[in-house]
Amino acid sequence: MRRNSIIGTALVTTAALALAPAGEAAKSKHTTKLSCALELYAQGMPNPSGIHFGFAQCPSPFGKGLHYNAYTVTPTGMGKGTVAAKFKNYYNRGTTRGTVAMTFSATSPKDIAYTGTVTYTGGTGKFKHVNGSGTIHCTSSDGGAHKACTVNSTLTGV
Q1: Is residue 44 part of a domain?
Q2: CB 42 within 8 A of CB 49
Q3: Domain count of the chain?
Q4: What is the pLDDT of residues 97-120, one digit of tens each?
């Protein structure tokens, strides 16, 4: 009977260890869905490439932060084109970084709509293991000098 008890305990312990989270590796498998708002200001308009500075407003664990990106615009037609950018977001507990790929379409010289994808490739501090992707939608009513964006992402490592 004692032998069966020892074997049973060993099996339960082995099963528990196999199912237990393994530190950071387990943390990175947990997914977090976030919706953030960005308020962006183009520096040095109008240029086919440049930088944006702005503000990020996200739920926990990010919170309020600052946004920076370096972008390149490639026109594909009258009032249409693509935007490629590398970004970095700065929060109190760390940073996130990644890339953006968008298309845009102007309905007037001032009104522009942008849509595309966001890919997170890492970060620092609390967010050093962040990875994931999402969608981005932006609008501008002043020819692209100021953009209001919504980013919906599914992330791991947060």
Answers
A1: yes
A2: no
A3: 1
A4: 999 999 999 999 999 999 999 999
